[in-house]
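Figure caption, in words: inputs first, then the predicted bound structure.
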Amino acid sequence: MEKVRLTSLVRSSGCNAKLPPGDLHDVLSSLPPFHSDRLIGGYEAADDALVYDLGNGRVLIETVDFFPPMVDDPFLFGEIAAANALSDIYAMGAVPAVAMSIACFPSCLELSVLREIMMGARSRTDEAGCVIAGGHTIADREPKFGLAVTAVHDKDKVWTNSGAKVSDVLVLTKKLGVGILMTASKGGECPEASFNAAVSAMRTLNRTARDSAVDLSVHAATDVTGFSLLGHASEMSEASGCTIAIDGSAVPVHDGVHDLAMFGFLPEGRYTNEDYIAEKVAFSDSTGQTMKDILFSPETSGGLLLSMSSFDAEIYLERMKGSAWIIGKVLERDGKPVHVL
Ligand code: CO
Ligand code: CO
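Bound structure (cobalt (II) ion present):
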């Protein structure tokens, strides 16, 4: 029996398969406004998850994320989809408590493939210490997988994307370029070492990134996924009423990404992101085209983006042992929400 290549079954993959942000915004902003005293985040401020006040000093945090495969190996795909879904909980400063699967699966594929995907997800929820049970699966032409995840957390300890303070620095905990590498991989052009580095980053939980910061003063937090570094940074600066200045030369990028971007291996989401975000970003004259490509490209299961004092950031970087980078700083609002230096 020939082994199925999961990515050959799908048109776009990973967080790149998100609806263009402009389209989504148009629909969401056309809905009648919803208000509840219990709802304290997740609707207006474009936060990573919904936050529901339980009224006793505790909150429920809920998120759902699913997407088509960006790798051929079903176990690996399950791991990446789960790490990506769990990440929104870590981005709120919380710990995932329970998860349910959401899956679409072609009836022509062997069920063992679905089992492998679920086993991959299970390995990540096990590492997260998260209960996984139940879910929903439907037959569909393209496979897709993800999780709905819930956490319970102290109300006053929730991280949001709205508290970035002037003079903070911005810290990123995974390298960029995964979307570009997976696009090249689909075309058979991604060097093996780069592919392996990207996969290893995508399946890595943002658990350590969260745990290493809980006793520090995190003023704002989010994770970097389909809307690109610039998209998520602009959400943070708009919610916080500041300007975020990103130092392009300080942004960590996977090996091989620059060359592949130059050769044109760019995910479609790179352009829909730019359509939506470009007016919020001021580039310096020295920002090259490939750097723009990288900064606008969707990431899948990317790192946390944290705004904290430079004092706390030094402690954090030491704890993260080389897998966290200071990539910019927070300024008084000065024209556009994001500047790229
Ligand atoms: Co997120
Ligand atoms: Co999400």
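The chain has a mean pLDDT of 94.
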